[in-house]
């Protein structure tokens, strides 16, 4: 391990000031510490933010408000989350082992780095780790990589499961930074790789995630998360789907669908949603809508199976959501 300094933030403003000077925030550290051990990341200064008043879970009208420092396990077990936003609870449970859920914070989960093996190989070309060095995944082993939102510079998938659910649910986030406070959709946190894959999110220097807000609605009662992976636990998604339906008299009034494991960021499937609106609840309607999910897909040599697996996963997730009373 290389030398670095570690300090504890005594206030949110102190943390923001340190972040503006180039310090890295650390809470659960479930990703950052691993990357530091492998020397993939070499921050010189870490700021422990665990003592800041940014935790907790509460109900505000029809919204669930989740503090950025709330642990994944805490959120998944919360009665209000399970009652009002079961999709979030399910995606968190599917997202990590119990040990990791106990450590990892919600804000940190959204900002975790990609799980591309070439990103972690110091002797491999990776534009995320070393800009303009190339992308070994494009011509290498790429079965776990993205088919949507890719570029010639990067095809790594975003690894978060709960981010997929939050994007489907139109969640927003509030951040504080040197320039003050702002709020924006969680979906807008994530950048497409384009020619700058090392720029993964839209936070400004020193900005700190404060809370996540998830609006309510009829669709939240019929919502499920389905994750397809190589093994039953402790594995990242090959394909996942978050589906939420508002149904009246057997007709889909509104659909929310997002996918994981296939995009360079959590992938909202608005064309699929629009195709379901006003349709009678049926497998045929689900299949017709799900076929739109792969528009614009660019499979690589080893991940072409995702073009077929993604629509199938969406159909099953919609069926599961439609079965929930």
TrEMBL record:
Gene Ontology MF terms in the entry: FAD binding; oxidoreductase activity
Statement: the UniProt record of this protein carries the keyword Endoplasmic reticulum? no
Pfam families listed in its UniProt record: CO_deh_flav_C (PF03450), FAD_binding_5 (PF00941)
Q: Does the keyword Hydrolase apply?
A: no
User: Which keywords does this chain's UniProt record carry?
Assistant: FAD, Flavoprotein
Q: Which SUPFAM superfamilies match?
A: CO dehydrogenase flavoprotein C-terminal domain-like, FAD-binding/transporter-associated domain-like
Residue ranges occupied by any FAD-binding PCMH-type domain in the UniProt entry? 1-219
Q: Which PANTHER family match?
A: OXIDOREDUCTASE, XANTHINE DEHYDROGENASE SUBUNIT C-RELATED
The name of this protein is FAD-binding molybdopterin dehydrogenase
């Amino acid at each position: 391990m290389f030398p670095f300094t570690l300090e504890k933030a005594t206030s949110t403003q102190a943390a923001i000031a340190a972040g503006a000077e180039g310090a890295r925030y650390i809470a659960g550290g479930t990703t950052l510490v691993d990357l530091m051990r492998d020397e993939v990341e070499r921050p010189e200064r870490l700021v422990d933010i665990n003592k800041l008043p940014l935790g907790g879970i509460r109900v505000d009208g029809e919204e669930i408000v989740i503090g950025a420092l709330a642990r994944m396990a805490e959120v998944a077990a919360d009665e209000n989350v399970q009652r009002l936003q079961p999709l979030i609870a399910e995606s968190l449970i599917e997202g990590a082992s119990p040990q990791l859920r106990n450590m990892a914070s919600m804000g940190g989960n959204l900002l975790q780095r990609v799980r591309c093996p070439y990103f972690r190989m110091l002797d491999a070309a990776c534009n995320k780790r070393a800009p303009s060095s190339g992308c070994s995944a494009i011509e290498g082993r790429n079965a776990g990589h993205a088919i949507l939102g890719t570029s010639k510079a990067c095809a790594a998938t975003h690894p978060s499961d709960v981010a997929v659910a939050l994007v489907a649910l139109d969640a927003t986030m509030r951040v504080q930074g040197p320039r003050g406070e702002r709020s924006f959709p969680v979906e807008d946190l994530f950048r497409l790789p384009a020619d700058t894959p090392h720029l993964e999110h839209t936070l400004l220097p020193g900005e700190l995630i404060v809370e996540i807000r998830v609006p309510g609605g009829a669709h939240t009662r019929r919502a499920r998360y389905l994750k397809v992976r190589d093994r039953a636990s402790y594995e990242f998604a090959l394909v996942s789907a978050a589906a939420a339906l508002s149904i009246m008299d057997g007709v889909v009034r509104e659909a929310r669908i997002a996918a994981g494991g296939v995009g360079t960021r959590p992938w909202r499937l608005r064309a699929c949603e629009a195709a379901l609106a006003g349709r009678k609840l049926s497998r045929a309607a689900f299949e017709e809508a799900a076929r739109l999910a792969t528009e614009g897909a660019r499979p690589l040599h080893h991940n072409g199976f995702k073009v077929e697996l993604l629509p199938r996963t969406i159909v099953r997730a919609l069926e599961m959501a439609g079965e929930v009373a």
